[in-house]
Amino acid sequence: xxxxxxxxxxxxxxxxxxxxxxxxxxxxxxxxxxxxxxxxxxxxxxxxxxxxxxxxxxxxxxxxxxxxxxxxxxxxxxxxxxxxxxxxxxxxxxxxxxxxxxxxxxxxxxxxxxxxxxxxxxxxxxxxxxxxxxxxxxxxxxxxxxxxxxxxxxxxxxxxxxxxxxxxxxxxxxxxxxxxxxxxxxxxxxxxxxxxxxxxxxxxxxxxxxxxxxxxxxxxxxxxxxxxxxxxxxxxxxxxxxxxxxxxxxxxxxxxxxxxxxxxxxxxxxxxxxxxxxxxxxxxxxxxxxxxxxxxxxxxxxxxxxxxxxxxxxxxxxxxxxxxxx
Length: 326
Hints:
Elements: E1 3-8, H1 35-51, E2 55-59, E3 75-78, E4 87-90, H2 101-111, E5 115-117, E6 128-131, E7 134-139, E8 146-149, E9 156-159, H3 169-175, E10 180-185, E11 198-201, E12 207-210, H4 217-227, E13 231-233, H5 236-240, E14 247-251, E15 254-260, H6 265-273, E16 277-281, H7 284-290, E17 299-303, H8 312-317, H9 320-323
Parallel strand pairs: 1-2, 4-5, 7-10, 12-13, 15-16
Antiparallel strand pairs: 1-17, 3-4, 6-7, 8-9, 11-12, 14-15
């Protein structure tokens, strides 16, 4: 069934906080975004989704809230599919992005979902997502972001840390009480969210793309134990362009996996071997300047046919086709 997703208009996309290693130069200076290139890439991606049957709802831009272009961090809908009462759980974001919650909450409620809040530091479906019979929860040490001295040139480095703390696990277990959660520890600051090292795909999301070096050794062992031959290990080159930061959609009985342009032929072959057709898109400006690729730019609200009727008019008003028809 086709998906409904949320994307954030890129009008004010820029580097404000510089809160991950992609956003700053080797000297710690914040990078500058090419706004024309960013808008062009964003629209091409949105049109590619629409062409593959995805319902794209767009959050309006807000000056000073450049992070809205990465709505995967907004929170997560649970359960994502199937019957039952669905609730959207809002993230506890970085201080530099905390005001985004005041935008996400009314938007999601107008779509028709009640909202709740996660109290521990946690950044949504970027760190909590389904994979086969599991929910994967990725975490790392959350640190105060700062510059510290070092030997070498420049004589300082930036400490970034990670985004979701292990303390969120108790809350997530209460929310997803009927599904087994696999906690996995991240180890590379350049891969600060789980969706930059892992991506589930396939009819039951039973296959997993994984960049093993982005995980702690004990977490690698867990994935090998539970996924076995369904684990597709990513090369360093594919991981560097965030091949795992991908998004799966269904269209006319076929599965498509949207990946960043430039992934290897070997990876494309491995995906096709598993019955999924890869679609590539150039979102390099969003990775090089903001540290996010395709999945970071998408908030998944599940099958379009399961969306609340109460939000149908609002979704139509905020649809990509309605907003950018000209």
